[in-house]
């Protein structure tokens, strides 16, 4: 049918977002539609050859620890190698550090193929995010010693935020970083500290895929009284390599005191090791002697190099965190797309039953492909609407990143602020609704979908992680309603409203879309009214009691906007693919957007039914 | 807190349904609240000792076939033994066949504990359903040889409907049953046939838990031209034992030609073997010689004894199927309850973060149990509302079964008809919403919930089966809107409406419930209006295009009714448990019932967005 994932991406990139126009900008002047296509071709091919065939394998052969090393399947090593050799790790970097200066939108689209093929076999996303953070906030030496080897695929990266006792509550972390001797500030790799603490849920925290692992670790520097500063303002950021390096990033042969304390055994997403790491427990003691004159061996612990200023750690980490959140949204979207395509193929080939017709079912007629049954079509169209709608949002956000990087001052600032507002949606909405899509993909398969002989049950298990990691649904909702819609006096919300209004105005001109345009305008008004009502008296307890339903309604409205804007373009073309987009848009407006009213109602009325439930009454 | 599963069941049984009143009926005259409690105590104890400790074990040690036998963990054998010895297999049977003449409501409540403890370790439900079918439709010899050994726990039972090529479309089954020689009608165990065919998705289809397995098999008897009759009217029902028996149910030593062709490897529910069975493939050939004078060895195939009249097989099977559907609903409900209780325990003991307050979060304060966070309360209250609401419906349906069995003619007929209408809801609603509850239970646990160190991810995987087996969601929806609400000129729908109206009238008297009463009355009117609009011109294509959204709205309305009726009783008491019920009711009316409007809207408008989507546009 020619409407696989690639066709969906091509349409969104070139017909809808018109990313080829980016090539008029100086940074991308060497690029063209042809170079973009070549990148996508390469990603599609590697994903097909090195990722997809091993997706079930990495589910059944979980990472295991032999006491010394974490063992991963050979296929995982091959996949990493192919990915690193493709150049995708440094695709968006400057030419002078070996990058391709590719627009972020194309990088994101290329990475989508890997997520669809095997979401958990790769660890590229965190490595690139880690390197990007260091390129933005590290010293030239830190970039050279850590970020460049990551971008070359020699090192990989992690983000170490959570601790077993603290979870999402970062103000409560207790990992401690103390200056490593009197000369601690003189280390060429940055102010040198000794870290002690435990970090939980660290993806790719231990493995042998790369020569080294660059942990970016949040920790607190004790005050003069030896106590850790309270709150998130006391958090600093440190580079803690698994193996110590010299100023050029060469391994010194000395292991740092970062020890694997346990592997988490997960419901899905099993291709990626997920670890509990102990920093400075003494399993790999590092004495001062190995490090030259500035070191005196005091303060046992893992060696860490501070990034930037003390107390600014969380702000720097959000550089990486926001990328990771959008990455999670894309992963969720691609798992949804993979299930959609699998169930579509199944529905086209599996024959069973006969359509309901005025004449009733005639058992003398042969069975039909199940795609002819109305309820199967409903389940497929819902998946298409969820997943292609989510994909549009992901690519729209990626395009905003490019605007932030290469637009003029006003456009870049607008893009930055829109991204602030849209990030919680880009992360949460696909996590919830592309998971629902995966459940529908199972349902289309019937009993077969519940067996491990078909891929869809794994997509569903893998996708369940996405509402949890990199900030749970609840955290995203507090971020949206408690912070993002208020920031800069609501300017981000107003900017989003202006963009929605622009789509509404254009869609009103299309007779087939005018009713949808009105529905979207009404929905946005309802979201704004609920936002105002929630904060009517400024009491955050009442305002935020229904933050998740608010986020659900906000998200459905944003995806309705995406679909209307996509349909506006599709309405100008013809052919089955455009017909399908118009139908998915109609599905979203008829079946999905009306769901926002029950969600907004509890926000608007500041319903405290849940908040007031006494513990003992459960 | 004293509000575990047992407390929830006790309240519903004795304070809400007042099942102790059943003891005034002749059949239950020997019973009392004390005998009921003793049964529940026993079930709770066995479930705690023999089921719950092994729930993870049966997930990791899947059934495997060694070429001859299916190997199950020793714990599964122990669980079956304890269950059989408890007498629960024959709890509801007459005294004269060894039963307890227990009300079905108490039997169902007792079985709930096993489902909550380990849903997949047991195979009791199908065995009882199988025996009940034979007690109702079998000959005295068939009852003696097959049903009584099942009720005693010596044999177990299956239902064999689906075939690999036919799935839900039973009219397309091709399993063939031919009379076994001239004397086929003279066999003491019933008219004897030879069966050949393949049956898919057969739970407990092969194992060594019992001396024998009684397969109840749907097959078609070829006509004089050798062709199978088309449609479901050509289906007959056969008893096909794994091992052949004499007229007293004693094993003859001869294996029947039923061969395991494969084990299905499932996403969850792994404690139960699920099989593809080949009937009559010749692996265990049965010649005539072993069977006395009436046999001549013609017609290779598995020996099967016809139940009742030819062509009536599906009607008989629905005796078992309806029980199985309610059993699925109860299993889904109990998986939901298990997750609710686990996440409640976790939320009460896990400390993290601080409540949002007007003063803002103060990091100098210690972290609080996460149950104090509004969004965690929301996720717990949603689970309570889903699962205890579903439990109320399950027990209400069970009470209707007792009415059907022991009420006067009019009451029994009314109960039968109400059960017809409510069965698709009792099966589908918990399958969908108690699965959602399990997802919330994972979310309450954060990352820990996604690991296999906590039970909730398994509940979620186990529960995903329930929307598929014993009739998919789509099949239930067609049954509801295409058949049940229309049957007997809509009399079932009217009866349900009258019961809802009675609850509404009573609840209006309670000031705290009056608004909910009005909301329920409005919701029911909306369901009726949508039903009429769907069938406005009698065209089933348009009427049934949105059967699933219709069923979702119908289900939410039924559960709202359950909650209002429960709240009516809770409002007369006090204490935290009653407070919790009133709050869960309020949650359901504020957060859930308003969802019906978007579902009903597409039914009422006979929206064909999905039905008209062309295949090539996906």
TrEMBL record, chains A, B:
<dbReference type="InterPro" id="IPR013786">
    <property type="entry name" value="AcylCoA_DH/ox_N"/>
</dbReference>
<protein>
    <submittedName>
        <fullName>3-methylmercaptopropionyl-CoA dehydrogenase</fullName>
        <ecNumber>1.3.8.-</ecNumber>
    </submittedName>
</protein>
<dbReference type="InterPro" id="IPR025878">
    <property type="entry name" value="Acyl-CoA_dh-like_C_dom"/>
</dbReference>
<keyword id="KW-0274">FAD</keyword>
<dbReference type="Pfam" id="PF02771">
    <property type="entry name" value="Acyl-CoA_dh_N"/>
</dbReference>
<dbReference type="InterPro" id="IPR009100">
    <property type="entry name" value="AcylCoA_DH/oxidase_NM_dom_sf"/>
</dbReference>
<dbReference type="Pfam" id="PF12806">
    <property type="entry name" value="Acyl-CoA_dh_C"/>
</dbReference>
<dbReference type="GO" id="GO:0050660">
    <property type="term" value="F:flavin adenine dinucleotide binding"/>
</dbReference>
<dbReference type="InterPro" id="IPR036250">
    <property type="entry name" value="AcylCo_DH-like_C"/>
</dbReference>
<comment type="similarity">
    <text>Belongs to the acyl-CoA dehydrogenase family.</text>
</comment>
<dbReference type="InterPro" id="IPR037069">
    <property type="entry name" value="AcylCoA_DH/ox_N_sf"/>
</dbReference>
<keyword id="KW-0560">Oxidoreductase</keyword>
<dbReference type="InterPro" id="IPR052166">
    <property type="entry name" value="Diverse_Acyl-CoA_DH"/>
</dbReference>
<dbReference type="InterPro" id="IPR009075">
    <property type="entry name" value="AcylCo_DH/oxidase_C"/>
</dbReference>
<dbReference type="GO" id="GO:0016627">
    <property type="term" value="F:oxidoreductase activity, acting on the CH-CH group of donors"/>
</dbReference>
<feature type="domain" description="Acyl-CoA dehydrogenase/oxidase C-terminal">
    <location>
        <begin position="311"/>
        <end position="479"/>
    </location>
</feature>
<keyword id="KW-0285">Flavoprotein</keyword>
<dbReference type="Pfam" id="PF00441">
    <property type="entry name" value="Acyl-CoA_dh_1"/>
</dbReference>
<feature type="domain" description="Acetyl-CoA dehydrogenase-like C-terminal">
    <location>
        <begin position="498"/>
        <end position="614"/>
    </location>
</feature>
<feature type="domain" description="Acyl-CoA dehydrogenase/oxidase N-terminal">
    <location>
        <begin position="36"/>
        <end position="151"/>
    </location>
</feature>
<dbReference type="InterPro" id="IPR046373">
    <property type="entry name" value="Acyl-CoA_Oxase/DH_mid-dom_sf"/>
</dbReference>
